[in-house]
Design brief:
- The chain has 379 residues and is an alpha+beta fold.
- The protein folds into 2 domains: 4-90, no CATH class; 149-372, Sandwich (Jelly Rolls), CATH 2.60.120.200.
- The protein contains 7 helices and 17 strands.
- Strands 2, 4, 5, 7, 13, 14, 15 and 17 form an 8-stranded antiparallel sheet that branches.
- A hairpin with a 2-residue loop joins strand 9 (270-275) and strand 10.
Protein backbone atom coordinates (compact mmCIF):
# COMPACT_ATOMS: atom_id res chain seq x y z
CA UNK A 1 0.00 0.00 0.00
CA UNK A 2 1.30 3.59 -0.79
CA UNK A 3 1.90 5.70 2.37
CA UNK A 4 0.13 9.07 3.01
CA UNK A 5 3.42 10.84 3.48
CA UNK A 6 4.48 9.82 0.02
CA UNK A 7 1.19 11.14 -1.48
CA UNK A 8 1.71 14.50 0.24
CA UNK A 9 5.24 14.69 -0.99
CA UNK A 10 4.16 14.13 -4.55
CA UNK A 11 1.44 16.79 -4.37
CA UNK A 12 3.92 19.35 -3.12
CA UNK A 13 6.35 18.37 -5.78
CA UNK A 14 3.78 18.93 -8.50
CA UNK A 15 3.21 22.40 -7.13
CA UNK A 16 6.77 23.37 -7.42
CA UNK A 17 7.76 24.77 -10.77
CA UNK A 18 11.34 23.86 -10.11
CA UNK A 19 10.31 20.23 -9.94
CA UNK A 20 8.63 20.03 -13.35
CA UNK A 21 11.15 17.60 -14.34
CA UNK A 22 10.67 15.75 -11.12
CA UNK A 23 6.98 15.60 -11.94
CA UNK A 24 7.88 13.82 -15.09
CA UNK A 25 10.09 11.64 -12.96
CA UNK A 26 7.18 10.87 -10.72
CA UNK A 27 5.13 9.91 -13.70
CA UNK A 28 7.91 7.71 -14.71
CA UNK A 29 7.68 6.24 -11.31
CA UNK A 30 3.98 5.66 -11.75
CA UNK A 31 4.21 2.57 -13.84
CA UNK A 32 7.30 0.77 -12.95
CA UNK A 33 7.82 3.35 -10.15
CA UNK A 34 4.84 2.15 -8.21
CA UNK A 35 6.85 -0.82 -7.44
CA UNK A 36 9.84 1.45 -6.88
CA UNK A 37 7.95 3.37 -4.23
CA UNK A 38 7.34 0.20 -2.46
CA UNK A 39 10.97 -0.32 -2.73
CA UNK A 40 11.63 2.89 -0.83
CA UNK A 41 9.83 1.42 2.12
CA UNK A 42 11.29 -2.04 1.95
CA UNK A 43 14.31 -1.79 -0.28
CA UNK A 44 15.08 -5.05 -1.83
CA UNK A 45 12.00 -7.10 -1.07
CA UNK A 46 9.37 -4.59 -2.08
CA UNK A 47 11.29 -3.88 -5.22
CA UNK A 48 11.20 -7.48 -6.17
CA UNK A 49 7.56 -7.81 -5.37
CA UNK A 50 6.80 -4.52 -7.09
CA UNK A 51 8.18 -5.63 -10.40
CA UNK A 52 5.93 -8.56 -10.42
CA UNK A 53 2.70 -6.76 -9.51
CA UNK A 54 3.75 -3.12 -9.51
CA UNK A 55 3.67 -2.76 -13.23
CA UNK A 56 0.10 -3.98 -13.38
CA UNK A 57 -0.99 -1.91 -10.41
CA UNK A 58 0.69 1.16 -11.75
CA UNK A 59 -1.21 1.09 -15.02
CA UNK A 60 -4.47 0.46 -13.20
CA UNK A 61 -4.18 3.07 -10.43
CA UNK A 62 -1.97 5.69 -11.98
CA UNK A 63 -4.20 8.60 -11.01
CA UNK A 64 -4.05 7.71 -7.42
CA UNK A 65 -0.37 7.49 -7.74
CA UNK A 66 -0.27 11.05 -9.01
CA UNK A 67 -2.07 12.23 -5.94
CA UNK A 68 0.27 10.31 -3.75
CA UNK A 69 3.10 11.96 -5.52
CA UNK A 70 1.90 15.36 -4.44
CA UNK A 71 2.05 14.41 -0.82
CA UNK A 72 5.14 12.34 -0.89
CA UNK A 73 7.47 14.91 -2.33
CA UNK A 74 7.77 16.85 0.87
CA UNK A 75 10.89 15.16 1.81
CA UNK A 76 13.52 14.97 -0.88
CA UNK A 77 14.46 11.76 0.74
CA UNK A 78 11.67 10.43 -1.40
CA UNK A 79 14.23 10.64 -4.07
CA UNK A 80 15.89 7.90 -2.23
CA UNK A 81 12.92 5.90 -3.24
CA UNK A 82 13.95 6.64 -6.79
CA UNK A 83 17.30 5.34 -5.80
CA UNK A 84 15.43 2.30 -4.64
CA UNK A 85 14.27 1.98 -8.22
CA UNK A 86 17.87 1.35 -8.95
CA UNK A 87 17.22 -1.81 -7.08
CA UNK A 88 15.03 -2.69 -10.05
CA UNK A 89 18.20 -2.59 -12.01
CA UNK A 90 19.27 -5.37 -9.75
CA UNK A 91 16.19 -7.18 -11.04
CA UNK A 92 17.61 -6.80 -14.48
CA UNK A 93 20.49 -8.76 -13.18
CA UNK A 94 18.03 -11.56 -12.56
CA UNK A 95 16.94 -11.26 -16.13
CA UNK A 96 20.52 -11.27 -17.14
CA UNK A 97 21.06 -14.75 -15.86
CA UNK A 98 21.64 -16.37 -19.14
CA UNK A 99 20.47 -19.82 -19.79
CA UNK A 100 23.24 -22.26 -19.52
CA UNK A 101 24.81 -23.02 -22.84
CA UNK A 102 24.52 -26.64 -23.77
CA UNK A 103 27.74 -28.47 -23.64
CA UNK A 104 29.22 -28.98 -27.08
CA UNK A 105 28.70 -32.41 -28.53
CA UNK A 106 31.76 -34.53 -28.46
CA UNK A 107 33.46 -34.99 -31.78
CA UNK A 108 33.33 -38.53 -33.01
CA UNK A 109 36.63 -40.29 -33.15
CA UNK A 110 38.00 -40.69 -36.66
CA UNK A 111 37.55 -44.11 -38.24
CA UNK A 112 40.65 -46.18 -38.50
CA UNK A 113 42.17 -46.59 -41.95
CA UNK A 114 41.86 -50.10 -43.33
CA UNK A 115 45.06 -51.96 -43.98
CA UNK A 116 46.08 -52.19 -47.65
CA UNK A 117 45.25 -55.43 -49.43
CA UNK A 118 48.10 -57.63 -50.44
CA UNK A 119 49.02 -57.89 -54.10
CA UNK A 120 48.42 -61.30 -55.63
CA UNK A 121 51.33 -63.17 -57.06
CA UNK A 122 51.65 -62.91 -60.81
CA UNK A 123 50.48 -65.98 -62.68
CA UNK A 124 52.97 -67.96 -64.63
CA UNK A 125 52.80 -67.92 -68.38
CA UNK A 126 51.63 -71.22 -69.80
CA UNK A 127 53.68 -73.13 -72.32
CA UNK A 128 52.46 -72.48 -75.81
CA UNK A 129 50.80 -75.54 -77.30
CA UNK A 130 51.92 -76.96 -80.57
CA UNK A 131 49.61 -76.45 -83.49
CA UNK A 132 47.47 -79.45 -84.27
CA UNK A 133 48.02 -80.93 -87.64
CA UNK A 134 45.16 -80.77 -90.05
CA UNK A 135 44.59 -83.26 -92.80
CA UNK A 136 46.09 -82.49 -96.16
CA UNK A 137 43.58 -80.28 -97.90
CA UNK A 138 43.27 -79.71 -101.60
CA UNK A 139 44.05 -76.15 -102.70
CA UNK A 140 40.57 -74.74 -102.91
CA UNK A 141 39.26 -71.37 -103.88
CA UNK A 142 40.51 -68.27 -102.11
CA UNK A 143 39.50 -68.20 -98.48
CA UNK A 144 37.42 -65.47 -96.89
CA UNK A 145 39.22 -62.23 -96.16
CA UNK A 146 41.28 -62.43 -93.04
CA UNK A 147 41.51 -59.58 -90.56
CA UNK A 148 44.01 -56.97 -91.67
CA UNK A 149 46.25 -54.57 -89.84
CA UNK A 150 49.79 -53.99 -88.79
CA UNK A 151 51.61 -56.63 -86.83
CA UNK A 152 52.05 -56.04 -83.12
CA UNK A 153 55.44 -54.59 -82.36
CA UNK A 154 57.86 -55.55 -79.63
CA UNK A 155 59.57 -52.86 -77.57
CA UNK A 156 63.30 -52.54 -78.18
CA UNK A 157 66.14 -52.69 -75.69
CA UNK A 158 64.17 -53.77 -72.64
CA UNK A 159 63.15 -57.29 -73.67
CA UNK A 160 63.50 -60.19 -71.26
CA UNK A 161 66.12 -62.75 -72.26
CA UNK A 162 64.76 -64.02 -75.60
CA UNK A 163 67.37 -66.77 -75.61
CA UNK A 164 66.50 -68.14 -72.17
CA UNK A 165 66.32 -71.94 -71.94
CA UNK A 166 63.02 -73.45 -73.04
CA UNK A 167 61.78 -76.85 -74.25
CA UNK A 168 63.16 -77.90 -77.64
CA UNK A 169 65.53 -74.93 -78.06
CA UNK A 170 68.47 -75.90 -80.30
CA UNK A 171 70.11 -72.58 -81.09
CA UNK A 172 69.74 -68.90 -80.17
CA UNK A 173 71.94 -65.85 -80.72
CA UNK A 174 71.53 -62.36 -79.24
CA UNK A 175 74.77 -61.21 -80.95
CA UNK A 176 75.99 -59.74 -77.66
CA UNK A 177 79.12 -61.94 -77.86
CA UNK A 178 80.30 -60.16 -81.03
CA UNK A 179 83.56 -58.28 -80.50
CA UNK A 180 83.83 -56.75 -83.98
CA UNK A 181 81.39 -55.61 -86.65
CA UNK A 182 81.57 -59.07 -88.25
CA UNK A 183 78.93 -61.60 -87.12
CA UNK A 184 80.69 -64.38 -85.16
CA UNK A 185 80.71 -68.11 -85.98
CA UNK A 186 78.68 -70.03 -87.01
CA UNK A 187 77.40 -67.12 -89.14
CA UNK A 188 78.61 -66.25 -92.60
CA UNK A 189 77.48 -63.37 -94.80
CA UNK A 190 76.94 -62.13 -98.34
CA UNK A 191 76.80 -58.41 -99.07
CA UNK A 192 77.04 -55.69 -96.44
CA UNK A 193 76.05 -57.35 -93.17
CA UNK A 194 77.44 -55.93 -89.91
CA UNK A 195 77.01 -56.04 -86.15
CA UNK A 196 75.37 -52.75 -85.13
CA UNK A 197 75.76 -51.39 -81.59
CA UNK A 198 74.46 -47.87 -82.30
CA UNK A 199 70.87 -48.54 -83.36
CA UNK A 200 68.77 -49.76 -80.39
CA UNK A 201 68.70 -53.57 -80.47
CA UNK A 202 65.72 -55.72 -79.59
CA UNK A 203 67.61 -57.00 -76.53
CA UNK A 204 71.00 -55.97 -75.21
CA UNK A 205 73.09 -53.56 -77.28
CA UNK A 206 73.80 -55.40 -80.53
CA UNK A 207 71.87 -56.54 -83.57
CA UNK A 208 72.65 -57.41 -87.19
CA UNK A 209 72.29 -54.67 -89.79
CA UNK A 210 71.47 -55.52 -93.42
CA UNK A 211 72.77 -52.61 -95.48
CA UNK A 212 71.18 -53.33 -98.85
CA UNK A 213 71.95 -50.92 -101.70
CA UNK A 214 70.43 -50.31 -105.10
CA UNK A 215 73.05 -52.54 -106.75
CA UNK A 216 72.70 -55.50 -104.36
CA UNK A 217 70.71 -58.66 -104.99
CA UNK A 218 71.54 -60.85 -101.96
CA UNK A 219 72.45 -59.18 -98.66
CA UNK A 220 72.19 -62.10 -96.27
CA UNK A 221 73.19 -63.48 -92.86
CA UNK A 222 73.65 -67.25 -93.31
CA UNK A 223 73.21 -70.03 -90.73
CA UNK A 224 74.52 -73.38 -91.94
CA UNK A 225 75.73 -75.66 -89.15
CA UNK A 226 75.34 -79.42 -88.67
CA UNK A 227 74.89 -78.77 -84.95
CA UNK A 228 71.69 -76.87 -85.71
CA UNK A 229 70.13 -78.19 -88.95
CA UNK A 230 68.81 -80.46 -90.28
CA UNK A 231 66.76 -81.77 -87.35
CA UNK A 232 65.77 -85.38 -86.83
CA UNK A 233 62.13 -85.82 -87.75
CA UNK A 234 62.19 -82.92 -90.20
CA UNK A 235 60.07 -80.54 -88.05
CA UNK A 236 61.47 -77.29 -86.60
CA UNK A 237 60.61 -73.71 -85.70
CA UNK A 238 62.62 -70.60 -86.49
CA UNK A 239 62.02 -67.31 -84.68
CA UNK A 240 63.50 -63.91 -85.43
CA UNK A 241 62.99 -60.31 -84.39
CA UNK A 242 63.29 -57.90 -87.30
CA UNK A 243 62.95 -54.18 -87.86
CA UNK A 244 62.36 -52.49 -91.21
CA UNK A 245 63.55 -48.97 -91.84
CA UNK A 246 60.76 -48.35 -94.35
CA UNK A 247 57.22 -49.58 -94.94
CA UNK A 248 56.71 -52.83 -96.82
CA UNK A 249 56.98 -52.61 -100.58
CA UNK A 250 54.37 -53.38 -103.21
CA UNK A 251 57.01 -55.37 -105.09
CA UNK A 252 58.14 -58.91 -104.28
CA UNK A 253 61.25 -59.26 -102.06
CA UNK A 254 62.46 -61.84 -99.53
CA UNK A 255 63.44 -61.59 -95.82
CA UNK A 256 64.07 -65.27 -94.91
CA UNK A 257 65.17 -68.15 -97.17
CA UNK A 258 65.05 -71.82 -96.18
CA UNK A 259 66.67 -74.28 -98.53
CA UNK A 260 69.21 -77.09 -98.92
CA UNK A 261 72.80 -75.92 -98.74
CA UNK A 262 73.72 -78.21 -101.62
CA UNK A 263 71.00 -76.74 -103.86
CA UNK A 264 70.55 -73.16 -102.68
CA UNK A 265 67.60 -71.29 -104.11
CA UNK A 266 66.29 -74.26 -106.06
CA UNK A 267 63.96 -77.19 -105.54
CA UNK A 268 61.51 -76.65 -102.67
CA UNK A 269 63.24 -73.51 -101.43
CA UNK A 270 60.91 -71.42 -99.22
CA UNK A 271 61.04 -67.60 -99.28
CA UNK A 272 59.24 -65.54 -96.64
CA UNK A 273 59.01 -61.91 -97.69
CA UNK A 274 56.79 -59.09 -98.93
CA UNK A 275 54.46 -58.38 -101.81
CA UNK A 276 51.49 -56.04 -102.19
CA UNK A 277 52.75 -54.32 -99.02
CA UNK A 278 52.09 -57.38 -96.84
CA UNK A 279 53.76 -60.49 -95.47
CA UNK A 280 53.74 -63.51 -97.78
CA UNK A 281 55.77 -66.54 -98.90
CA UNK A 282 56.59 -68.43 -102.06
CA UNK A 283 57.73 -72.02 -102.59
CA UNK A 284 59.54 -73.63 -105.51
CA UNK A 285 60.14 -70.27 -107.13
CA UNK A 286 56.61 -68.98 -107.70
CA UNK A 287 54.99 -72.39 -108.10
CA UNK A 288 53.23 -71.99 -104.75
CA UNK A 289 52.49 -68.74 -102.98
CA UNK A 290 50.42 -67.39 -100.13
CA UNK A 291 49.53 -63.84 -99.10
CA UNK A 292 48.68 -62.98 -95.50
CA UNK A 293 45.30 -61.92 -96.91
CA UNK A 294 44.32 -64.68 -99.34
CA UNK A 295 41.37 -62.59 -100.54
CA UNK A 296 43.47 -59.57 -101.44
CA UNK A 297 42.70 -59.71 -105.15
CA UNK A 298 38.99 -59.51 -104.32
CA UNK A 299 38.84 -57.03 -101.45
CA UNK A 300 42.09 -55.09 -102.00
CA UNK A 301 42.89 -55.11 -98.27
CA UNK A 302 46.47 -55.65 -97.11
CA UNK A 303 47.25 -58.50 -94.75
CA UNK A 304 50.00 -58.40 -92.13
CA UNK A 305 52.22 -55.32 -92.34
CA UNK A 306 55.34 -54.63 -90.27
CA UNK A 307 55.52 -51.20 -88.64
CA UNK A 308 58.65 -49.33 -89.80
CA UNK A 309 61.14 -48.53 -87.05
CA UNK A 310 59.69 -51.10 -84.63
CA UNK A 311 60.81 -54.60 -83.71
CA UNK A 312 58.46 -57.36 -84.91
CA UNK A 313 58.54 -61.00 -83.78
CA UNK A 314 58.22 -63.48 -86.67
CA UNK A 315 58.07 -67.27 -86.16
CA UNK A 316 57.77 -69.97 -88.83
CA UNK A 317 57.04 -73.71 -88.53
CA UNK A 318 58.54 -75.95 -91.22
CA UNK A 319 57.56 -79.63 -91.19
CA UNK A 320 58.84 -81.59 -94.16
CA UNK A 321 57.23 -84.87 -93.11
CA UNK A 322 53.64 -83.78 -92.78
CA UNK A 323 54.11 -81.38 -94.71
CA UNK A 324 53.14 -78.15 -92.93
CA UNK A 325 54.01 -74.48 -93.03
CA UNK A 326 52.68 -72.09 -90.38
CA UNK A 327 53.48 -68.47 -89.47
CA UNK A 328 53.03 -66.33 -86.34
CA UNK A 329 53.56 -62.58 -86.03
CA UNK A 330 53.80 -61.15 -82.54
CA UNK A 331 52.80 -64.57 -81.20
CA UNK A 332 49.54 -64.60 -83.23
CA UNK A 333 49.00 -67.14 -86.00
CA UNK A 334 48.43 -65.83 -89.51
CA UNK A 335 45.69 -68.21 -90.80
CA UNK A 336 46.19 -67.50 -94.51
CA UNK A 337 49.87 -68.48 -94.25
CA UNK A 338 49.09 -71.88 -92.71
CA UNK A 339 49.37 -74.59 -95.36
CA UNK A 340 49.55 -78.36 -95.35
CA UNK A 341 49.33 -78.74 -99.14
CA UNK A 342 52.79 -77.55 -100.22
CA UNK A 343 55.83 -79.92 -100.38
CA UNK A 344 58.91 -78.75 -98.47
CA UNK A 345 62.35 -80.17 -97.65
CA UNK A 346 64.12 -80.86 -94.36
CA UNK A 347 66.15 -77.68 -94.72
CA UNK A 348 69.74 -77.37 -93.47
CA UNK A 349 70.35 -73.76 -94.55
CA UNK A 350 68.70 -70.58 -93.24
CA UNK A 351 69.39 -67.10 -94.63
CA UNK A 352 68.16 -63.82 -93.14
CA UNK A 353 68.37 -60.44 -94.84
CA UNK A 354 67.11 -59.04 -98.12
CA UNK A 355 66.94 -60.75 -101.49
CA UNK A 356 65.79 -58.02 -103.79
CA UNK A 357 63.68 -58.67 -106.90
CA UNK A 358 61.52 -55.55 -107.21
CA UNK A 359 63.15 -53.35 -104.58
CA UNK A 360 63.61 -50.68 -103.50
CA UNK A 361 66.78 -51.05 -101.42
CA UNK A 362 66.17 -51.12 -97.69
CA UNK A 363 67.87 -51.24 -94.29
CA UNK A 364 66.79 -54.11 -92.04
CA UNK A 365 67.91 -55.18 -88.56
CA UNK A 366 67.72 -58.75 -87.17
CA UNK A 367 68.15 -59.86 -83.57
CA UNK A 368 67.59 -62.81 -81.21
CA UNK A 369 67.43 -65.51 -83.91
CA UNK A 370 66.42 -68.93 -82.56
CA UNK A 371 65.79 -72.47 -83.84
CA UNK A 372 63.96 -75.21 -81.92
CA UNK A 373 61.87 -78.35 -82.22
CA UNK A 374 59.02 -76.82 -80.19
CA UNK A 375 57.30 -73.42 -80.42
CA UNK A 376 59.72 -70.73 -79.30
CA UNK A 377 57.50 -67.68 -78.79
CA UNK A 378 58.36 -64.01 -78.49
CA UNK A 379 59.41 -63.81 -74.83
Amino acid sequence: MISSSHRAGCSLALALSLALALGVGCRAGEGGGAGGAGGSVSSGKAGTGGTAAGGTAGSGTGAAGTVGAAAGSAGMPGSAGVAGAAGMSGNAGATGSAGTTGSAGTTGSAGTTGSAGTTGAAGTTGQAGTGGGSGAAGRGGAGGASGTGSAGTTGGGGAANPCAARPGLIFCDTFEAATTTTPPSPWTTTGTVTIDSTTPAHSGRRSVHIGDTANDYDTLLVLHSASVLPVAGGRFYVRVFMQLHDAMSAGHNTFILSDLFAAQGSGNALRVGEQNQMLMFTLMGDTHAALSNANYYNDGKPGIQFTPGAWTCLEVLLDSKKPEIDVWVGGVEVPDLHHTDFPIDNYDNLRFGFEKYAGPAVDIWYDDIAVGTQPIGCD
